[in-house]
Please model this.
Amino acid sequence: MVSLSDYLILAAVLFAIGIVGVFLNRKNLVVLLMAIEIILLAVSMNFLAFSHFLWGASGQVFVFFILTVAAAESAIGLAILIVLFRNRHTINVDDLDTLKG
Amino acid sequence: MSSPIALYLTIPLVCLLGSLITGLWGHKIGTTWSHRTAIAGVSIAFVLSAAFALPAVLNGHDLNATIYTWGYIAHTPLVVGFLIDPLTVIMMVVVTFVSLMVHIYTIGYMRGDPGYQRFFSYISLFTFAMLMLVMANNFLQLFFGWEAVGLVSYLLIGFWYTRETAIFANLKAFLVNRVGDFGFILGIAAIFTTFHSLDYATIFAHAAAMKSETLAITAGASWRLITVICILLFIGAMGKSAQMPLHVWLPDSMEGPTPISALIHAATMVTAGIFMVARMSPLFELSPMARSVVLVVGASTAFFMGLLGMIQTDIKRVIAYSTLSQLGYMTVALGASAYAAAVFHLVTHAFFKALLFLAAGSVIIALHHEQDLRKMGGLRRYMPITFITTWIGSLALVGIPPFAGFFSKDAIIDAVSHSTLAGSDYAFAAVLLSVFVTAFYTFRMLFMAFYGEPRMDAHTRHHLHESPWVVTVPLVLLAIPSALAGMVLIRPLLFGGFFHGAIFTLPANNVLVGMGRHYHGIMAFMADGFLAAPIYLAFAGIGTAWYMYIYRPTVPARLAARWHFLYEVLRRKYGFDELYIDGLAAGARAIGRFLWRVGDVQLIDGAMVNGTARLIGRLAKLGRRLQSGYIYHYAFAVIIGLFVLMTFFLHHI
Model:
């Protein structure tokens, strides 16, 4: 039997992978977007696990919302990425430091 | 408003009117009408003072009236009011008379000067201010007149404002007077806090009740309030009447035209301090300590300033130092409680000192504005009227009977000898020695200017002639009272109770009563004079001057070489100027420069204004290092922050 804690551990591992992906990724902006998707999936996984074990549907409804928002977010993110590439001819994260004080 | 008040009001106001007309429209009405207007104003003032105010007061019609209340401070009215009593009246007559003489004389002295109308405007304004000062019945008006004469004095010393020295002198006079006025206004403030009034009559009525009030100024020592008030007021008098150590402005004020030297710096304005102390006699009587201060300051001024007159070579400066010395005499009389004698000497001195100054001015005109005694000599042949009137003035100043100065000066010396105040022995010695000194410098001046061989250049000597009548008439008119005023006035002023009600003397201090008991007429007074030391000291002074400047003219130079140190001390005027200019003024400037360089530039501008800006800049420089611009650094900060917050909440909930 798969217990709740197994799901939660899986979600935590996914979350950690996502976070590490955000931090350690120095090369590719696409990888950064994928890492954010993984974080969102980890959160969704938590929702689903609690929804299943607590016999509630609201968690699953939330996941639908998250998936929708994540899709929209990916679309906008990729659009920004394309515009960025057109302007700078690079998607290297280390080169994107115009905010430096 | 009843008619005497209107007449009294007219006296100062005609002078103000004359001043305004000549000052504002002087160039429209021309020089002739300017001096006519100004002289008419002062003449009216003089006639009203002498023919109306004097008889009225002699008949006992004193007046103390408020004319106009122009404001209130809390419940204290600020008023223009007149107190017309014997003291006021005698000042009014003297001021307007000398002023009138000077007005007439000015026509001759200032002829052709581009500031002719301006000069008349100033001297009329001065007469107005002085009249307001002496006629005041409250401290505020006294202070108004006090400051106004100071202002006019400033304007007149710097009358020839293109001269560097004149500007220096008028600034000096103004600043030194500020020091005195600071004391004066503190005194008025002390009076106001004590009596809650500015009115003379109210204050004098309550003065005795305040006799034992004390005030803790310094820790541990408490001062009698009345002493503090009197000394503060006297500091004001020291400034205006040029007593040591605030005397430095008066000799320099000789930069102004000679008529105002006569009017302001000899006859009238400088006597304001003497008048004020006499007016405040009910206060000064209560404080023996304040009178001791007055006595010692006056005696020092009389003697030490007289010594300086002995070596001056500028004819006007000789007379200026003589004025200082004579003011010292008056101050000594005030200190000895012989207020009447002080005012008596004030009156006689006004006549003969104005005379001497105007005579000196006459000499200066004749020599084309040459003031150096060393370039004069032998003038008696060319200027007989000036010569004779100068003799009369000199005899009066030296105190040879029967001229005016003898009576007033002898009365003062006599009064001091009767005084038992602390310091009276010193004062007696000082005034006695001053008689010799006075005689010496006066006759030194007379001999150097009028006797001996002419020392001016041939061109000037060729043009020498007696001054025009506008100059000589005032000389003659002033010579008459210089000769006679003493004999006429001694009895009423000193012993006749003329000042009854105006001057208050405690019975225990009243030295004049003792002198009055021995007074048996003018002749007896003169005969007594020949039995006392002063007159022989005066003759000795004249004799010494004759020996040194007529008989053996080489002696002064030899003495100066032999007593080089003493001569140098006198030539430097005891170093007061150096002390004030290089010591106090330079010290104040050094403090100012220090505060500017260190306090302002370094501390405020450097550390505080620019310092905060620099500090913020430095912090910002550190802060911007945090902003790497990499998104993952920001995200990392967010996560760390989240962890920290969560840990925090989990531990506390």
Observations:
- Chain B touches chain A at residues 623-632, 635-636, 639 (CB under 8 Å).
- The longest strand of chain B covers residues 63-73.
- DSSP finds 26 helices and four strands in chain B.
